[in-house]
Design goal:
The chain has 331 residues and is mainly beta. The chain has four helices and 19 strands. The protein folds into two domains: 118 residues, no CATH class; 126 residues, no CATH class.
Length: 331
Amino acid sequence: MNTTFTPRAPKRVVTLAGLTAAAVALSACGDDPAPISAPVEAAETTTTVAAPAPAATAAPVEPAAPAAEAPRDAVVKISQTELGDVLADADGQTLYAFTNDVDAVSTCYGTCAEAWPPIIVDPDFIVSPGLDSGIFATTVREDGNHQLVAGKFPLYLFAADAKPGDITGHGSGDVWFAVDLGGRIIEDGAPPADAEQGETADEQISDEQAGEVVAPMIQLGDSELGPIVTDANGISLYLFTPDEAGNPTCTGDCAGTWPPLLIEAGSELAAGEGIDPALLSTVEHPDGGMQLKIGIWPLYYFAGDSEPGDVTGQGSGDKWFVVAADGKAIR
């Protein structure tokens, strides 16, 4: 991938009023100007009345120069959220950083970019007043488009955010975070209550305070596709067809968009009514932890789902599908 990191000095808009003020200031200055704060004493002068000069023919008036074009909207602004002030796009939608991106190089493509659309800008973008333009730059994506960068992080939207101020992607997969005004990720802020897919796997399936596993681990939930396998909170679960050998192949940045359903090693495998618990097993995930399986399929979340019954990942890339009670794909 031929990716470059392109810092960019912000454009300055020079107005006619600004040029006029500058000209007046220059005309008042000599080779050795007095300090601005020093008062100037009035000198005694002798007034001489000069003979009137012959009338001069007035020069033709040149047409006024056209007004300077108004600057286009800033591509990045400030948005107020429950996390405090964060970076947002021109419409006020929260912007996110992906911690798997290193040295300002984007690694989110394909199905990842469907859930987390990159912010594409012109190389001569401008930013909103109140932001330090020096922290922003662009990085060139594989398709040649310029993606906005804050600090060392390329910036993205989250498809599940519906309105300005939404932060439903914050903490997703423990790799996606909102960004503060200095271009740093916000890791200490509490994620929204409805972002179950952003919790850690242990939080999703266990009660750490009581030391007891929540039962069932999976259950059947209602969706527009009919009854499907969900987690204990009703969030849809998916299978990935390249896992047909029974081993998880979605790792790294793929797992940022499709977090695996991990359980504590040694946990009793429990299923809700309508699911045969004999179908359940576990497999070690390459990134660490034990992933729950139904039939031959390791189970995953989709970062774009935020509510029980959501199936926004269904059919993605013709490889991701929700699961029926018998452990087979619903296509």
